[in-house]
Glycosyltransferase (Priestia megaterium), 241 residues
Amino acid sequence: MLEAINRIEDTVEINKKNNQYSYVVTPNVDHIVNTYKNEKFKQVYDNADLILVDGMPIVQASRVLKSELKEKVSGSDLTPELFKLAQKKQYKVFIFGSREGVADLAIQKIQKDFNYDFPIKGFSPPFGFEKDPIVLQECIQKIVDYQPDMLLVSLGSPKGEFFIYNYLSELKVPVSLQIGASIDFIAGTVKRAPVWMQKSSLEWFYRFVKEPKRMFRRYFINDSLFFKIFIQEYVAKKRGN
């Protein structure tokens, strides 16, 4: 985690000096599967400046493939560390997404619990904003006008990644990240799995129990393709040796 935060800090500083813009992705199993099914989503990942793995199956697969990843860095664990970084460096942060009022709740909570005083603002766009050119441009302009050092997008995947990728040069933010439900966890509007389940790599099961209808297709149908991908990579590596 420390290495990831240091990389992000370095990237913010370099990009601020050079007027450049970067983004970070945090792939889980579902994302990996979607990069194989969706060429545009793969393009988003191929052009990311930093990839932080948010899934133990990916870490474990990397060990078998002898291309070991150091650790899992979940977006939910990363976001509080980004706030710590923002406090240390007094970075301006913009939270874009989540449901109406959730970002404000999260901001109030971190300011109350940790006495953070770094500049931070949140905005929840209307549903379907990306389909209306006028509303979309208004959303982009809100971010541009604030001139944040870090943009935290909470639109869900792949919508969040596409938003960052498609409008990176317009947004002009040194570092942008799609952070999933992290803001909901901080605000307390969505309960995260108990710590013991997080440490046991059972967070996915907790989410399945909470939302069985929505998560069944994702975990047991869509994500099952990950095993096929892993076997293909394993066989290809063996043949290469």
